[in-house]
Amino acid sequence: MPDTDHFELWTDEPRRAGRPTPDGTVELVLSEADADAVRALASRGGASLGAVALAGFAAVLHRYTGRAEIPVQAGAEPGAETVQADLSGDPGFAALLGRLKLDQRQAAFTADGLSVSLDGFGAPDGGTGGGTDGTDGTAGSGPRVVAGYDRGLYHEDTARRLAGHVATLLAGAAADPALPVSRLPLLTAAERETIDGWNATEVDYPTAHTVPELITLQARATPDAVAIRFEGTSVTYRELEERANRLARHLRALGVGPDAVVAVHLERSVELVVALVATLKAGGAYLPLDPQYPPARLMFMAEDARARVLLTRRSLAGRVNVPDLRQVCLDDPAEGLDDLPAEPPAEAPALADLAYVIYTSGSTGMPKGVMNTHAGLLNRLLWMQETYRLGPGDAVMQKTPCGFDVSVWEFFWPFLTGARLVVIKPDGHKDMEYLGEVAEAERVTFLHFVPPMLALFLEFADLSKCGSIRQVVCSGEALPADLVRRFFASGLSAGLDNLYGPTEAAIDVTRWACGPEDPIIPIGAPIANTTVHVLDAHGNRMPVGMAGELHLGGVQLARGYLNRPDLTAEKFVTDPEDPDGRLYATGDLARWRADGVVEFLGRIDHQVKLNGSRIELGEIEAALLANPAVAQAVVVLGEDNRGEPALVAYLVYRGHPEPGGRVRARLAERLPEYMLPTMYVALTEIPLSPNGKVDRGALPKPAVRDLGTSEAEFVAPRDDVERLLADLFGKVLGRGPISIKDSFFDLGGHSLLAARLTARLRRNFGIDVPMRMLYAGPTVESLAVALVEAALVAERDA
């Protein structure tokens, strides 16, 4: 008997112990035409109505799940016969009927707490009819589809939709019995209309001016208002406009125009903001090059994007050496920027022109550049303004690293509204107490967190001093409901919204306003002029409640991937229902809820999200294989020794295994810090499934010994400062004992744990501990010296 234990549908309520059993029913009375169609299916196929019911139910379940083998029980009682419906090869309905062998009189067919029967048909002379429950139909009740459901798992509406799907599919099969099951109609007309209504997001925003033009208009309206605050200094709208205009004219003179890429290699600063605004004013597209990334990665991006100009400063010059790339140091008087006219360039960018190019992790081993247009950026910012109503009294914190697309709205949205942009110091986004202090000092009203950082902010910031915050938005990865409850119980009076969107769709495309009682946090409904579509592998719409790949449409879609027409064609596909439309296939698994919002369910591939960062595991694996000592590599998102999400690398070495710290150091030459695995597990072979693919489920659970380890000899702490530091290292990393020579990062530390450590250091030592101090000296020995020196400086300056 086929095993039905592992056949599971997406349910409306959490699963409970025990076997799902239908204990509620709904009925859908068929029209005369639909009833005749069902009879015709049975008659033409020489099959019973029971076989038609089974085939229809199995076909619907196949469309729900994509599974080729559908186990269905003939009856709900324990021990009932199980029929394995074979839908491999995408058969037509007539062929599917031919594959089923079933007595004509059977009880309702059940699978995972749902059931279907065809009742009330009667038995015409010489026919093959008879209800699937063995009756000949009650007089006056009429032919109908009866759908049963387990009321502890499914809502009544789900059963009603199931009945409608069975009826719709059978009617389509009667019209063309040879049509493959994947092409048969499934959704009812009413359900299609409902989903269309959820995607009716058209808003007629003004598009006469692009973002750089709107910044100019705002600067003319409020020239003396403060536009930027950075480390205690202010820049007015007039100053921002004039500095950006001068640089824009310089860029134009260097050949920058529509779709020309300008690489920007600057730390978070006023100069960074000016460089980004100037690039848009010049008509170019900016390419952010985060100085925290390895030089090799920065040079690849600049060269791959064919950047025309590199904007940087003298202290960073030389890190990005690309032939024929004109370098402009913004702090070099020789560039003559102060001598240029302060008016904006005569030509403004068009809506179809590129605004920015941001590189994301690539599954083939190298990052890929996403080309976003002014039309998408403008729509995203106008929607945000319509939704949150930023004004001159507001202050937005700029804390997201420029290489991530959330930073885009942080940089530009305030300048369209007369608000202030509060730019935090480099690495300040990892220091929660510092963020709280800035929020208080600068009266910040609006800021963004990825969920793990929001958790740290709630834990370490002094929230009693953050009363100015009126709105927090989260994005980057799934937002846990327990974190939402903690937020609303924290004493903050701010709202909390969950936003969703990939870089390929201009930052965010859905929104959900969170509440403290939300049991699950969905990603919400589509924003203005965007659409969301849940489709199966054949491009069909998925019914409400059932999972499929999330596709996005609308004005915010990126143009595609820079210099990657093959990948662009693969991911940006034609809308199956609109030959002139485009959709972006996200790779995310999602479903519509009955209330018209979308619930994120996971991934359909090996891309992962960790601490808000999008990571293609294949890129890490390719970088590991570049190490001559590594023969095979598999990377997964697993758990570290604290039970927290972490990247785990499984390695087969060509010879003796290398220490994890050495492997990590090699990787750090190619990958940014957020892509470095925490644990390195040496294997003699990679487990494979019978079809030759990596069996990720058979990979062993990593142990503490698999954490990156130092090659240095163990040296115990020698004084009180070192002992306290070693104790804090051990508590944050969840391991011990700690040698004063051990690197925090070689022992499994990463940016999130570093933020936790620096917060504890600040509390224990009572001095400012910038993140760069830990990165510069990540051992107990080095950090102890730095802390003592910092304490002496603080005492002297007191």
From TrEMBL:
Keyword Ribonucleoprotein listed: no
Region annotation (Disordered) ranges: 1-22
Domain Carrier: 716-791
Molecular function GO terms recorded: 2,3-dihydroxybenzoate-serine ligase activity; phosphopantetheine binding
Cellular component terms (Gene Ontology): cytosol; enterobactin synthetase complex
Keyword flag Phosphoprotein: yes
Domain of life: Bacteria
Amino acid composition bias (Basic and acidic residues), ranges on this chain: 1-16
The protein's name: Amino acid adenylation domain-containing protein
Organism encoding this protein: Sphaerisporangium album
